[in-house]
Amino acid sequence: MNLSISAIKGWSAVLVLSSTALGSAIYWELNTDYAPREHKVQVKLTTALPKISSLPEESFSLPPLANFTEIVERPLFNETRRPFEPEVTLPDSAKGARPVKVLRKLDWALVGVVLTPQRRSALLWSRARNKFMRVQQGAEFEGWKLEEVLSNKIIIVNGKQRQALDLRTY
Questions:
Q1: Cβ atoms within 10 A of the Cβ of 49, count?
Q2: pLDDT tens digits, residue range 139-164?
Q3: 82 contacts: CB under 8 Å, gap ≥ 6
Q4: Separation of CA 32 from chain center
Q5: Fold topology of 85-166
Q6: N or C terminus of the chain with fewer C-beta within 10 Å?
Q7: 110 C-beta neighbours (distance < 10 Å), count
Q8: How far apart are CA 19 and CA 13, in angstroms?
Q9: Where are the domains positioned within the chain?
């Protein structure tokens, strides 16, 4: 392999130039900031925005709750989507005896329970009165006594009548 001096000098010059170019490119890449830059854009509105005081006043009111009874009675997250009916249960001693006549449908629905070591209470809601009531276990309300509070239902007693209200699912 016979290389002339001029060929070696030529290849050396090519290597030096390409190394310098490559080093410059690497230096430029490392020192260039590619972060996005904020561009200020000015927009001129051709029409003036109306003043708030010049906007027409529209009185808005929600429709009465009575318009939504179908929605309330057919809970969205209940599998059957059937209207909520409280379950009537009788004590074991009354089974096989004459059926007990229910005096009236209870107006309250169980919407929440609170179970702590110190107390047990239920949150009831009356659809007709649109009112909530909190009752502690053992307390009375509208002639009914809250006998027991469980995690998914309550047991209420009115004389010989005993009723279980299941926790309402929405």
A1: 6
A2: 998 888 999 999 899 999 988 888 88
A3: 74
A4: 46
A5: SH3 type barrels. (2.30.30)
A6: N
A7: 22
A8: 10
A9: 85-166
Closest of 91, 69, 67, 71 to residue 81, by C-alpha: 71
Q: Output b/e per residue, 18-34; b: 16+ Cβ within 10 A.
A: eeeeeeeeeeeeeeeee
The residue type found at 99 is P
Higher pLDDT among residues 133 and 95, named by residue? 133
Q: Which residues contact 131 (CB under 8 A, 6 or more apart)?
A: 125
| C-alpha to C-alpha distance for 137 and 103, rounded to whole angstroms | 23
